[in-house]
Design a protein that fits this description.
With 85 residues, this protein is an alpha/beta fold. The protein is built from three helices and three strands, in the order E-H-H-E-E-H. The protein has a three-stranded parallel sheet with strand order 2-1-3.
Length: 85
C-alpha cells in the first residue's frame, strides 16, 4: 500500500500511470494507492504497518520519525528547488 500526502493531482500522475499501465505488476509489485487529503492522516499508518510507503510534503515528517525512534528510510525526493545567485 502506497499512501499519498494529498488527493490525486498532476504531481502524482506517474504513480497512477505506473499502476494503470502495469509497470508495477511487471516489476512484481502489487501496489494500491491510498489518497491523502484534508481529513486523512496517513502518517500514523506507516509505523502501524497499514501502509508500506508514504509520500510526505516535506522532510520534517522523516526527521520527526527518526527523533521518535520510528524506523524510517527516505527513498526519493520528487522536487528540487534551485537557488540562483
Amino acid at each position: 500500500m502506497f499512501a499519498t500526502n494529498w488527493k490525486a493531482q498532476a504531481a502524482h500522475g506517474g504513480f497512477y500511470q505506473a499502476l494503470a499501465d502495469g509497470t508495477y505488476a511487471r516489476a512484481g509489485l502489487a501496489v494500491t494507492i491510498q489518497q491523502g487529503g484534508p481529513q486523512v492522516n496517513n502518517r500514523p499508518l506507516l509505523p502501524a504497518g497499514k501502509i508500506q510507503f508514504l509520500m510526505t510534503g516535506n522532510l520534517l515528517h522523516s526527521f520527526d520519525n527518526v527523533k521518535n525512534g520510528v524506523p524510517t528510510m527516505v527513498v526519493a525526493a520528487m522536487f528540487r528547488k534551485i537557488r540562483r545567485r
